[in-house]
């Protein structure tokens, strides 16, 4: 494991912890898109089908369990928790997110590294992750006012993607036969989606003002 | 067997 991969995993982990912290301690999910959280839960479920059959390392298994557990508990909190669910801005979160799944599934059936159920589901999760943030970005654009924790959550998610790209570049030059077009193209698209947000995040940080997106 | 696998990533 290289430093970029570790930094990517740690920012990913931090993003999940920030979101759980917000939900658990403030008992609020204001500004958070349930649609995006549901897509992330599906992403992890379909990606980690090999959790018990393909052992890579203790680190890998624990991280997979954390991402699975946290994504499903976040969805549970927003949908079921007596207090938290009242802070959910349902009217601002209208993205028809399940429609995003069909193109991903069709693409995964036709463009994959191997045509087996596990491999197609894994590829599907890669495609779905690339666009899973869209409902959240649409919601941000609508509410415009973003509280600190929500801003940090999305910033950390974007940082995770950026570090993964550096990790791929590093691995390409240091490992033999490390070429994965599917993950790379999907990963770059995913990272580009955060570009706009990053711009405004850094602007507000530089000028020391509250993060607000333009209408 | 290829040495680099994307399956060891999360």
Automatic annotation (TrEMBL), chain A:
It is found in: Endoplasmic reticulum membrane. Keywords: Endoplasmic reticulum, ER-Golgi transport, Membrane, Protein transport, Receptor, Transmembrane, Transmembrane helix, Transport. The chain crosses the membrane at residues 55-78, 98-115, 121-140, 152-170, 182-202. It is a multi-pass membrane protein. One of its GO terms (biological process) is protein retention in ER lumen. GO terms for cellular component: endoplasmic reticulum membrane. This is ER lumen protein retaining receptor. It comes from Trema orientale.
